[in-house]
Design brief:
alpha+beta, globular, nine-stranded mixed sheet, 3 helices
C-alpha cells in the first residue's frame, strides 16, 4: 500500500516583521501566527523586514527545486528606493553590480511609473520630505543574502521598502498580507532554471 501524502504548495503574502520560520524570535513574529498547516516548510527565505511572496511545501523535492541554487527560478521584486534612479543606474543593475561577495548576474530592471497599487505597510516607511522616492521592478535569478538591498545601494539608491511579487510561475495576484492560498506544485520546472518565467515585457 502507498500511504504517501499528496504534495502541497502554499503561497503566503508575508507581512513586514515576520520571519521565514514558524517560531517567533526577538521582536519578529513567526509564521505560526498566520499558517496552521502541519508539516510544511519554507522553500526560499525572505528577510523579516521584507514583504511579499513566500512559498511553503511539505514535499522535500519540491522545496529543493524552488530553493536550491542549481534550480534558481526567476524572482520579481518591487523596490521602493530613496531618490530617482536614471537610466545609468538601471543599466548598472541590468549588467551586474559588484558586491563584496562578487558580481551579480545580469538582471532586468525598470522604473515603475505609476508605482504599484499596494497595501499600507505597518509600520509605515520613513521617508524624508526633501528626497523623492521611486519604485523599481527588479527581476533576478540569484538569492544572495539581502541581495536586492545591496544592489540598489551599490548604484546609489538605498532600498526603503522591498516586496517580492513573484517566484517563477507563482505570484501574489491580489493576495493580501497575512493571507495564503494553496497552489499547484506541478508548475515548478523539473530540470534547471527555465529560460523565461513570468517575463513581463514592458
Amino acid at each position: 500500500m502507498n500511504f504517501s501524502r499528496p504534495s502541497r504548495l502554499i503561497c503566503f503574502n508575508k507581512p513586514y516583521g515576520v520571519l521565514s520560520q514558524f517560531t517567533a524570535e526577538g521582536r519578529w513574529r513567526g509564521l505560526k501566527d498566520f499558517i496552521d498547516i502541519p508539516d510544511v516548510y519554507v522553500a526560499g527565505r525572505l528577510d523579516a523586514d521584507s514583504e511579499g511572496l513566500l512559498l511553503l511545501t511539505n514535499d522535500g523535492k519540491l522545496q529543493a527545486r524552488i530553493a536550491d541554487p542549481r534550480f534558481k527560478m526567476e524572482k520579481i521584486y518591487w523596490v521602493q528606493v530613496e531618490g530617482e534612479p536614471g537610466e545609468a543606474a538601471l543599466e548598472a543593475l541590468r549588467l551586474g553590480v559588484q558586491l563584496n561577495d562578487g558580481l551579480t548576474r545580469p538582471a532586468r530592471a525598470r522604473l515603475m511609473d505609476p508605482p504599484p497599487a499596494l497595501w499600507e505597510r505597518e509600520p509605515p516607511v520613513r521617508v524624508r520630505q526633501s528626497i523623492p522616492t521611486a519604485w523599481i521592478e527588479l527581476v533576478i535569478r540569484e538569492g544572495r543574502n539581502r541581495q536586492v538591498r545591496r544592489m540598489t545601494a551599490a548604484v546609489g539608491f538605498p532600498t526603503l521598502r522591498l516586496i517580492r511579487a513573484a517566484i517563477g510561475p507563482y505570484a501574489l495576484d491580489g493576495l493580501m498580507p497575512g493571507s495564503w492560498r494553496e497552489s499547484d506544485g506541478d508548475q515548478v520546472p523539473l530540470d534547471g532554471a527555465p529560460e523565461q518565467q513570468l517575463a513581463r515585457d514592458h
